[in-house]
Amino acid sequence: MARRDVPTCSLDERLGDVRDRVAAAGWDACVVVSPELVVLGLLRAKELNIDPDLLVEQAMRPGPSTYRPSVSVTKMRRIMADRGLDSSPVTTSDGRLVGLVRKQDIA
User: Fold this and answer.
1) For 72-102, what is each residue's pLDDT tens digit?
2) Which of 15, 34, 39, 80 has the smallest number of Cβ neighbours within 10 A?
3) What is the C-alpha to C-alpha distance for residues 72 and 10, in angstroms, rounded to an integer?
4) DSSP sequence for 38-52
C-alpha cells in the first residue's frame, strides 16, 4: 500500500523549489532523504508553505516515525488514526525509503 511515487528531496534544496515540484506531482508531502535514500525527515503542507528561501533542513520535521512493509494495513490504519496522521513513511530495517502510506489509500 506504500506509494513509491512519493516526492523526495535533499537537505540542501530550497523549500520553494521543493514545494513547486511536490505540487506539480499532485502531492502535499515530501520525504527528505539522504543520497542513499535513508529517511531523514518529512515536509508536510504546513512546512511546504513557509518561507520559500529556507533550506529543507531548516523546515523539515526531523526523524519521522517510520513503519516496515510487514505492518498490516489494519494496524497501519489504527496507528495513523490514533496519531492523527495523514501519511506515514515506510522504510526497510536500515531506514531506506520504500514509499509513503496515505490515509486515503488505506481507508
Assistant:
1) 989 999 998 999 888 889 999 999 999 999 8
2) 34
3) 29
4) BEEEEE-HHHHTS-T
Threshold 0.85, pTM exceeds: yes
Q: Give the C-alpha separation, 98 to 107, whole Å.
A: 20
87-91/97-102 β-pairing? antiparallel
Note the pLDDT tens digit of each residue in 52-68.
999 999 999 998 889 99
> 15 phi and psi, to 5 degrees?
-60, -40
Q: CA dist 67 to 24, 64, 77, 79, 107, Å?
A: 27, 10, 12, 10, 17
Classify domain 8-106 at the CATH topology level: CBS-domain (3.10.580)
Q: Rounded to whole angstroms, what are the CA distances from 63 to 26, 27, 28, 52, 105?
A: 24, 20, 18, 22, 23
Domain boundary assignment for the chain: 8-106
